[in-house]
């Protein structure tokens, strides 16, 4: 900058009076002193320098520095996230695989399904070439990630393709579990069998979103059957042949609940009932979710149809009485749970249990009790701003009025 200033000064037209002509040394020094003085004034002169600017525009300066600081912090945090979410997970793969995965993620971000799938295929091929086993967590993880991205692309437009990918992984894992069992490679068998069971439930959920209840039920039933079979095998087998950790009670409860929900939505209440009972017995006791499971159990019992070869009226009454007991138990448990264990789920469960008691009373012809329960459920729902609960209570009262006409 100083060089440009000096050259500009020498090009300026000089006075013709020889006595005013500066010497070479003074000609060089004057601009430097002048500009240096100007910079010094900028920082030190209160009337026109940096301090004056700051005093006159304090808010603007603070905003400017805040923006700069935020930009730097955001940039640094962005790099941290990139390293944590991309670089670290990819570090288990060889370089060619990493490159293909990054390409797949790039194409996914652009919504290019074809190129993304091709990149994942290349990544899987390179991984297997490098010596990674096709049933390893790393290779199977690539296939599962491909399915997850297919599910997200264009608001689920490729959900059917995602299901196909996951079903192939499930088939590979199921076959691998059988192979490893014959080879007595128990740890490997345990890994692929657990993954297959979890994939079955995931596939079932995806079929639910696609409106394919039959396929959803089939996938979840397969997983539940395999889970129960392995539970039974472990009861009579030496722990050395277990292969490692299995599903704990909480995980089993969640698995049984998934299939029970599918049966409930399909109107197969007799199949949902034992699953909800099992799920409620395995879930963490005295929790809000246990209350929810007991509520669902009561609902299934109240809606069950008696077997064809039975005394229909007697069996129906027995089912309704059992349903009432479970709904009352759910309500009693919910009222005992206090913070911090108590959550919004408990409040919702209280509304549902009270409503269920109203429904059961209506079915049993106890109209006055039913009215009280529906009104109580509606009042609770309004207090909790639960519009759905209010609507359910109003529907129950409307049905009751129709019955009384």
CATH class label of one domain: Mainly Alpha
Looking at the structure, what is the overall shape? Answer: globular
- Major β-sheet profile: none
C-alpha Rg, in Å? 36 Å
Share of residues in helices: over 70%
Give the terminus-to-terminus CA distance. 97 Å
CATH topology of one domain: Serine Threonine Protein Phosphatase 5, Tetratricopeptide repeat
In terms of structural class, how would the helical and strand content be classed? mainly alpha
CATH architecture of one domain: Alpha Horseshoe
DSSP strand content: under 5%
Main traits of this protein?
single chain; 405 residues; mainly alpha; Serine Threonine Protein Phosphatase 5, Tetratricopeptide repeat; 17 helices; 78% helix; globular; disordered N terminus
Brief write-up:
One of its GO terms (biological process) is protein quality control for misfolded or incompletely synthesized proteins. This protein is an all-alpha fold and 405 residues long.
If you had to describe this structure to a student in words, what would you say it looks like?
- InterPro entries: Mrg3-like (IPR040201), TPR-like_helical_dom_sf (IPR011990).
- The chain crosses the membrane at residues 61-82.
- It comes from Pyronema omphalodes (strain CBS 100304).
- One of its GO terms (cellular component) is i-AAA complex.
- Keywords: Membrane, Transmembrane, Transmembrane helix.
- This protein is mainly alpha-helical and 405 residues long.
- Among the domains are: 133-245, no CATH class; 287-405, Serine Threonine Protein Phosphatase 5, Tetratricopeptide repeat, CATH 1.25.40.
- Helix content is 78%, strand content 0%.
- It contains 17 helices and no strands.
- The protein has helices at residues 2-10, 24-44, 50-56, 58-90, 95-109, 113-129, 137-152, 159-182, 186-209, 213-235, 249-265, 269-282, 288-303, 312-336, 344-363, 367-383, 387-404.
- Helix 10 (213-235) runs antiparallel to helix 11.
- The protein is globular, with a radius of gyration of 36 Å.
- Residues 1-47 and 78-85 have low confidence and may be disordered.
């Amino acid at each position: 900058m100083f060089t440009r200033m000096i050259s500009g000064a020498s090009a300026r037209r000089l006075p013709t009076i020889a006595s005013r002509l500066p010497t070479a040394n003074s000609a060089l020094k004057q601009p430097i002193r002048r500009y240096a003085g100007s910079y010094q004034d900028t920082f030190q002169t209160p009337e026109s320098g940096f301090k004056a600017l700051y005093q006159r525009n304090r808010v603007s300066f603070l905003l400017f520095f805040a923006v700069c600081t935020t930009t730097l912090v955001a940039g640094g945090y962005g790099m941290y996230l990139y390293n944590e979410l991309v670089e670290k997970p990819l570090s288990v793969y060889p370089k060619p695989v990493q490159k293909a995965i990054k390409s797949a993620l790039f194409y996914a971000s652009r919504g290019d399904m074809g190129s993304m799938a091709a990149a994942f295929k290349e990544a899987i091929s390179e991984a297997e070439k490098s010596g990674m086993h096709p049933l390893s967590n790393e290779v199977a993880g690539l296939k599962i990630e491909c399915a997850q991205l297919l599910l997200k692309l264009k608001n689920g437009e490729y959900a059917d393709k995602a299901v196909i990918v996951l079903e192939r992984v499930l088939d590979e894992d199921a076959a691998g579990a059988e192979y490893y069992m014959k080879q007595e490679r128990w740890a490997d068998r345990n890994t692929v069998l657990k993954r297959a069971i979890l994939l079955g439930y995931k596939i079932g959920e995806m079929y639910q979103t696609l409106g394919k209840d039959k396929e959803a039920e089939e996938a979840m039933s397969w997983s539940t059957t395999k889970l129960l079979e392995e539970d039974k095998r472990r009861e009579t087998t030496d722990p050395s042949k277990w292969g490692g950790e299995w599903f704990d009670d909480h995980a089993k409860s969640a698995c049984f609940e998934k299939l029970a929900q599918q049966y409930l939505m399909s109107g197969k209440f007799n199949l949902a009932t034992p699953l909800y009972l099992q799920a409620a017995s395995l879930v963490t006791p005295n929790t809000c979710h246990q209350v929810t499971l007991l509520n669902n159990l009561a609902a299934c019992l109240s809606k069950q149809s008696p077997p064809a070869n039975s005394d229909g009226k007697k069996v129906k009454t027995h089912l309704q009485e059992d349903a009432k007991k479970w709904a009352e138990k759910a309500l009693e448990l919910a009222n005992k749970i206090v913070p911090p264990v108590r959550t919004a789920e408990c409040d919702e469960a209280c509304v549902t249990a009270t409503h269920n008691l109203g429904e059961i009373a209506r079915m049993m012809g106890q109209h006055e009790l039913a009215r009280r329960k529906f009104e109580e459920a509606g009042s609770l729902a309004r207090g909790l701003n639960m519009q759905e609960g209010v609507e359910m209570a109003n529907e129950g009262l409307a049905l009751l009025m129709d019955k009384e006409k």
